[in-house]
Specification:
The protein has 118 residues and is mostly beta strands. Helices cover 0% and strands 53% of the residues. The termini are far apart.
């Protein structure tokens, strides 16, 4: 079965950096758009960044200039480099794989906690 496994979360102070990784298995990685979402307590899940299978990227306004999404198709892995972290970035971060072809499925990872606090 398809697996998305996130790693790299943790507790950091404001202004520090983290890099999240999401390793995918049992999918043709190049056929999927990859995304990072986050959900803070009491809030809806929101899109943070997305990278298409052609490497086009989108970053939410709230993270633009601080976060960068990238992918390594040879490693079936998508990354989220997070710089200048703020307390408002505290959330569970989820990896998503969305099929770039008709009839395909969406897949989600189990999430990784990011806490930004002094």
């Amino acid at each position: 079965q398809v697996r998305l496994v996130e790693s790299g979360g943790g507790l950091v102070q404001p202004g520090e950096s983290l890099r999240l990784s999401c390793a995918a298995s049992r999918i043709n990685f190049g056929d999927y758009h990859m995304g990072w979402y986050r959900q803070a307590p009491g809030k809806q899940r929101e899109l943070v960044a997305r990278i298409a299978n052609n490497a086009d990227t989108y970053h939410a306004d709230s993270v633009k200039g601080r976060f960068t999404i990238s992918r390594d198709n040879a490693k079936n892995t998508v990354y989220l480099q997070m710089n200048m972290l703020k307390p408002d970035d505290t959330a569970v971060y989820y990896c998503n794989a969305a099929a770039a072809f008709l009839g395909g499925s969406d897949y989600w990872g189990q999430g990784t906690q990011v806490t930004v606090s002094s």
